[in-house]
Design goal:
Strand 16 and strand 17 form a beta hairpin. The longest helix is centred in the middle third of the chain and has 10 residues. It contains nine helices and 19 strands. The two termini are about 30 Å apart. The protein folds into two domains: about 240 residues, Jelly Rolls, CATH 2.60.120; about 80 residues, Sandwich (Jelly Rolls). Strands 1, 13, 14, 15, 16, 17, 18 and 19 form an eight-stranded antiparallel beta sheet that branches. A six-stranded antiparallel beta sheet has the order 2-3-10-5-8-12. Strands 7-6-9 form a three-stranded antiparallel beta sheet. The chain is α+β, with helices and mostly antiparallel strands and about 350 residues long.
Length: about 350
């Protein structure tokens, strides 16, 4: 079956925390109930403990996961498949924090392999699309090193003020980028709206649980028990110098193309912001594109054509070939890591 680019319909599974209004506004859809704070784009990843929630369904009714399994090279390209198999190695989300998120972290790949049977952990990066207040912030990394016993006590007593207060407060504005290595504890303020790139898993260890409607059967410690799960937490100190390496002040580019992420993100994913005034060539390769401003046309080498506008998300398979944009558009292009880690690429 030929593989072509297509627009992605909203894919908003129900979550324990509130949000979703900013997604509805961007995507031009009626708001759903107040617990749809994430839109999973180009997803071959299930929500933890769910059968199909989180998985992207294509316009022809197939799950993207099945389509990629049936034609991995057509979707991902031969070099990608040689390194990663029939695995997109990427999950992209829109995330609208309708309330402050709980303090939590995600395991790295080594922990995930050993304890969860997964090749991927959950390193992530956030491109800030909007904030509800001038003093909006994210909370990232412990301000001081935390002893193992102290962390265990904080989680056992569910002292939310102490947990949040132990983290750095990092003010953010639209255009900023925050890279979040696996293990680093974090939270987002209410009103922070992001485009998130991450490894393709749904692994979260909730350090803060009290006051959130986790629901029956929830596994805030991934079913491992706190004694094991807290072993994935980065308890080291994140001072100003370290924070500057992961919090990047970005603004919409004057240049046609701007790479968004720090070098440390390269083994996990890539992102570029493209500005189109008349027309621009993006190149080829599997990608998820999100139109954040303007309107125009999207055309691939295989002659797939789409009219696109702010709020549209497009999935681009390898077989679609090179992508051309025309019109007045601002687009964020999200891609998996380069195959062959360590190789030099343009």
């Amino acid at each position: 079956m030929p593989v072509s680019a297509e627009k992605l319909e909203p894919n908003q599974p129900r979550h324990f925390y509130r949000g979703g209004a900013a997604i509805a506004e961007l995507r031009g859809i009626p708001p759903l109930d107040g617990h749809r704070p994430e839109d999973w784009l180009g997803s071959t990843t299930r929500m933890l403990g769910r059968e199909v929630d989180g998985l992207t369904r294509l316009a022809d009714g197939r799950l993207l996961k099945d389509a990629v399994q049936n034609d991995p090279e057509g979707w991902l390209g031969p070099e990608h498949v040689a390194d990663f198999g029939a695995d997109t190695a990427l999950l992209v989300k829109l995330l609208d924090a309708g309330e402050r998120l709980p303090v939590h972290c995600h395991p790295d790949a080594e922990f995930a392999r050993h304890h969860l049977g997964s090749r991927h952990g959950k390193t992530e990066a956030w491109v800030v699309l909007g904030t509800a207040a001038d003093d909006s912030a994210v909370h990232l990394g412990f301000r001081h090193e935390v002893a193992e016993s102290t962390l265990a006590d904080l989680v056992a007593t569910q002292d939310a003020g102490a947990l949040l207060g132990a983290l750095n407060v990092v003010p953010v504005d639209p255009g900023d980028v925050v890279f979040v290595p696996a293990g680093v504890p974090h939270a987002l303020d209410a009103g922070v709206f992001i485009l998130e790139l991450q490894e393709p898993t749904d692994f979260s260890v909730l350090l803060e649980r009290a006051g959130f409607e986790l629901g029956e059967g929830a596994a805030p410690e991934l079913g491992l028990g706190d004694a094991v799960a807290l072993g994935c937490v980065d308890r080291s100190a994140w001072g100003p110098e370290r924070l500057r390496t992961v919090h990047l002040r970005r603004r919409p580019p004057d240049a046609e193309r701007a790479s968004l992420l720090p070098v440390a993100a390269a083994p996990f994913f890539r992102a570029e912001r493209w500005r189109c005034e008349e027309s621009v060539e993006l190149g080829d390769g599997f990608a998820v594109l999100v139109v954040v401003a303007g309107e125009g046309k999207f055309e691939t080498e295989s002659r797939g054509r789409l009219a696109v506008a702010r709020g549209d998300a497009v999935i681009v398979p390898y077989d679609a070939g090179s992508v051309r944009l025309s019109g007045r558009l601002e687009v964020i292009r999200c891609r998996p890591p380069f195959p062959h880690p360590g190789a030099v690429h343009p």
